[in-house]
Amino acid sequence: MGELQKLTGSAKLCGTVAYVAQTAWIQTKSVRDNILFGRPMDGERAVDAHTASHLFQECVRGALKHKTVVLVTHQVELLHGGAFLPA
Fold it and tell me: Which has the closest alpha carbon to 18: 56, 67, 57, 58?
């Protein structure tokens, strides 16, 4: 897409590239407010660690196992068995 200058090495594209423009939506409020958008916190609908891990393994790593996935997260316990980029 020409947005980064390659300093060394080579790049090869096999397949297609998609560009999806993003608009920042984060409000100057708490993290909770940015997630709930003013709705009340519903404890019955909260995702526990076991459910989050299952969703990640089945949806992200399962359905997308033949795709390149870039995941930015603070939940490093989900990232076992993957390649890591240092922060």
Answer: 67
Give the Cα separation of 52 and 78 in Å (integer): 9
| DSSP-based three-state secondary structure for 2 | coil
CA nearest to 17, candidates 83, 68, 73: 68
The CA distance from 38 to 76, in Å, is 28
Tens of pLDDT along the chain (87 residues)?
667 788 888 888 888 888 877 776 777 888 778 778 888 887 776 767 788 788 888 887 788 888 887 777 777 776 666 665 655
Q: What is the pTM of this model?
A: 0.37
Residue 8 CA: distances (Å) to CA of 3, 4, 17, 30, 65: 15, 12, 21, 42, 29
